[in-house]
Amino acid sequence: MAQALIELLQTKFADAVQETHAMRGDETVVVDPTRWLEIARCLRDDDQAQMSVLVDLTAVDFPDRDPRFEVVAHFHSLGLGHRLRLKAKVGKPDGSGAQIASLTSLWASANWLERECYDMLGVQFSGHPDLRRILLYPEFEGHPLRKDYPAHRTQPLVPYREAENIEKLPPFGPDEGMPFGRRWRDWVPEEDDADELLGGSKGQH
């Protein structure tokens, strides 16, 4: 059934379908990003498609490619039971120019999905009614799911507390939390710690 969707898009948007591929019944269509909203509207409204649900929307960073990002949306038809993945490639190699039309006018679920994609990867969604960070605070610099974001960088909203000659800081009691000075970024579990976290002796499941 999803193959029929590909043929539908190839017929209606012959100049906009850039690529199609499938693996084990999982069909994908790569389209011109300037036609993103128009094609998504067709998938929702056309009787052969009836994509009533936007299941997910995100992006993938390919820093060695031009365009750099792939915006990815997954659709599902409750009435017809088929699925389709739609992709569009945006952005320059330096990360700028990553912009595509918002789908919030078609699916309300796109609101938070696009905000997360903007927050984590920096993709701009034109026409979004409230495009701002959703997981990180406004002062956060950069986009942590980009491949060039330093993995060990920390940006605490409140500076780490420092103190001498104490084991713990409130609200931790003497037997709660991690030892003072061993922050999450420094902690590597010992073999016994890992065994305890797994709830038993080695080899038990």
Itemize the secondary structure elements and their pairings:
Elements: H1 2-12, E1 17-23, E2 26-31, H2 36-45, E3 53-61, E4 69-76, E5 83-90, E6 99-101, H3 110-121, E7 124-126, H4 191-197
Parallel strand pairs: 2-5, 6-7
Antiparallel strand pairs: 1-2, 3-4, 4-5
| Low-confidence sequence ranges | 180-185
Taken in chain order, the helices and strands follow as: HEEHEEEEHEH
Q: In one word, what is the shape?
A: elongated
Reported for the largest beta sheet, the result is:
5 strands, mixed
Key features?
single chain; 205 residues; alpha/beta; Beta Polymerase, domain 2; 2 domains; 5-stranded mixed sheet; two-stranded parallel sheet; 20% helix
Structure described in brief:
By secondary structure, this protein is an alpha/beta fold.
If you had to describe this structure to a student in words, what would you say it looks like?
The protein is an alpha/beta fold and 205 residues long. The protein has four helices and seven strands. It has helices spanning 2-12, 36-45, 110-121, 191-197; strands at 17-23, 26-31, 53-61, 69-76, 83-90, 99-101, 124-126. A five-stranded mixed sheet has the order 1-2-5-4-3. The radius of gyration is 23 Å and the shape is elongated. It starts with a helix and ends in an 8-residue tail after the last helix.
